[in-house]
Specification:
Helix content: 40-55%
Strand content: 15-25%
CATH topology of the largest domain: Dehydroquinate synthase-like, alpha domain
Bound molecules: glycine
Order of helices and strands: EEHEHEHEHEHEEEHHHHHHHHEEEH
Largest sheet: 7 strands, mixed
Oligomer: single chain
Shape: globular
CATH class of the largest domain: Mainly Alpha
CATH superfamily of the largest domain: Dehydroquinate synthase-like - alpha domain
Strand order of the largest sheet: 1-2-9-6-5-3-4
Length: 380
C-alpha cells in the first residue's frame, strides 16, 4: 500500500448508516472548525462540552473559542480523568449537570476527550431526555481510531467493563491529529495497538505499510493521518454492515477477550492501559491460532515483532509488575473472561486468525485448551 506522505488539509470518512450517517473529519488543526461545523449541522443549537481535567487544560479553551466564534452557546462539564469515571456516580453527576445546563432534546452534547469521556458522555447523551445527539471530539489515538466511531457508549459495572451501555451513534466526529502531540508516548503507543489491529484483522497491505511507516506515525508526520483515516475507513465499513454486532463487528474485538481479562487482573490500573492489553491479547490470539494450526508460527511472530518494535508489550511477562506482583493464574484469567460479554452458554468467543489480514470469529471455544495455553504462557 502506498500513500502520499504529506499533510493534507483534512480527510472526511463517511459512516454510512442511512439517516444516521455521519462524517469523521480527520486532520491537523480541525478542532478549530468545530464551531462552524456544529453551526452548519444544527443551526441555533445549544451545546455542553463534557471533558476531563487533563484534556480541559489543553483543549477546552480552543474548543470553546471555536464554538463562540460561530455563535454557538456552550457550557462545560469537567469530570475526573481515568477509567474510574466510567461509573454510575460520574454518570449521575454528568447527567445532572447536563440537565442544569438546560440541554434539551434538540441540543448537542460534545464529548471532548479520550475513550473514557467519549463512552461516558455518549451514554449520558443516549439516556438524557430519552436521547440527545452528540458530537465526538476524540483527543487520544485510541479514541480517534476506535472508540469515537461506531456508537458504542457506556460505563463499567463493579462486575465488569462496559456492562452498562447503549448503542448511540454520534452525529459528527472531529479527529484533530495535532492534539495527539500532547499525549505521553505510552498513551500514544497504546492507541497504536488499535491501529495495528485493523491491519491484522483485515488488511495485510496496511499491516505491511505500518511495518515500514510506524516511526512517521509516532512522530506526527503525514503517515499519521493516513493511518488514522485507514483505520476509521475500516471501522466505518464494518459498522455500517453490522451496527449492532450481530456478526462481523465482533472482529473488532481481536485481542480483547484476552486483553479485557488482563486489564481486570491488573485492576484496570496504570499497570496496563487498554491498548496495551489489546497488544498482548492480539499476540496471544495469534499464538493460540498458531497452536490450533490456523496460522503459521512465523505469522504469529511477525505480529509480535511489529508490536514490539513500536514499544508495546507483547507477552504476559511484559506487563508492569509481573515479576513482583504476578498476574492471576490461568483459572482466574478464565473466570475473568467468563464475566466478559464474549461468553455464550459456557463457550468462549475468540477472534482468531487464518492469516495476517484475515480474522475469523470462533464462538465455540471450549475453556480447557485456553486454560492450558494460558498456563504455558504464564510459565514461559
Ligand atoms: N471497539 C469495538 C467496537 O466498536 O465494536
Amino acid at each position: 500500500m502506498t500513500a502520499p506522505l504529506k499533510h493534507s488539509a483534512s480527510v472526511t470518512v463517511d459512516v454510512a448508516l442511512g439517516d444516521r450517517a455521519y462524517d469523521i473529519v480527520i486532520g491537523r488543526d480541525v478542532l478549530a472548525s468545530l464551531g462552524e461545523r456544529v453551526a452548519a449541522l444544527r443551526p441555533g443549537v445549544r451545546t455542553a462540552i463534557v471533558t476531563d481535567r487533563t484534556v480541559a487544560k489543553h483543549w477546552l479553551e480552543p474548543a470553546e473559542a471555536s464554538l463562540a466564534a460561530a455563535g454557538v452557546p456552550t457550557s462545560r462539564i469537567v469530570a475526573e480523568e481515568g477509567e474510574g469515571s466510567k461509573s454510575y456516580a460520574t454518570l449521575t453527576q454528568v447527567s445532572e449537570a447536563l440537565i442544569a445546563a438546560k440541554i434539551e432534546r434538540n441540543d448537542l452534547v460534545i464529548a471532548l476527550g479520550g475513550g473514557v469521556v467519549g463512552d461516558l458522555a455518549g451514554f449520558a447523551a443516549a439516556i438524557l431526555r430519552r436521547g440527545v445527539d452528540f458530537v465526538q471530539v476524540p483527543t487520544s489515538l485510541l479514541a480517534q481510531v476506535d472508540s469515537s466511531v461506531g456508537g458504542k457508549t457506556g460505563i463499567n459495572s463493579p462486575q465488569g467493563k462496559n456492562l452498562i451501555g447503549a448503542f448511540h451513534q454520534p452525529v459528527l466526529v472531529i479527529a484533530d491529529t495535532s492534539v495527539l502531540d500532547t499525549l505521553s508516548p505510552r498513551q500514544f503507543r497504546a492507541g497504536y495497538a488499535e491501529v495495528a489491529k485493523y491491519g491484522i484483522l483485515g488488511d495485510e497491505a496496511f499491516f505491511a505499510w505500518l511495518e515500514k511507516n510506524h516511526a512517521d506515525i509516532v512522530s506526527g508526520g503525514a503517515g499519521r493521518e493516513h493511518a488514522i483515516a485507514t483505520s476509521c475507513r475500516a471501522k466505518a465499513a464494518i459498522v455500517s454492515r453490522d451496527e449492532r454486532e450481530t456478526g462481523e463487528r465482533a472482529l473488532l474485538n481481536l485481542g480483547h477477550t484476552f486483553g479485557h481479562a488482563l486489564e481486570a487482573a491488573t485492576g484496570f490500573s496504570d499497570r496496563l492501559f487498554h491498548g496495551e492489553g489489546v497488544s498482548v491479547g492480539m499476540v496471544l490470539a495469534a499464538e493460540f491460532s498458531a497452536q490450533l494450526g490456523m496460522i503459521s508460527s512465523d505469522d504469529a511472530a511477525r505480529i509480535a515483532r511489529h508490536l514490539s518494535a513500536v514499544g508495546l508489550p507483547t507477552r504476559l511477562q511484559d506487563i508492569a509488575g509481573f515479576t513482583q506482583e504476578g498476574l492471576a493464574d490461568a483459572d482466574a484469567l478464565l473466570a475473568l473472561m467468563a464475566q466478559d460479554k464474549k461468553v455464550k452458554r459456557g463457550k468462549l468467543t475468540f477472534i482468531l486468525l487464518e492469516a495476517v489480514g484475515r480474522a475469523v470469529i470462533a464462538n465455540n471455544v471450549e475453556p480447557p485448551p485456553v486454560r492450558d495455553f494460558l498456563q504455558a504462557k504464564l510459565k514461559a
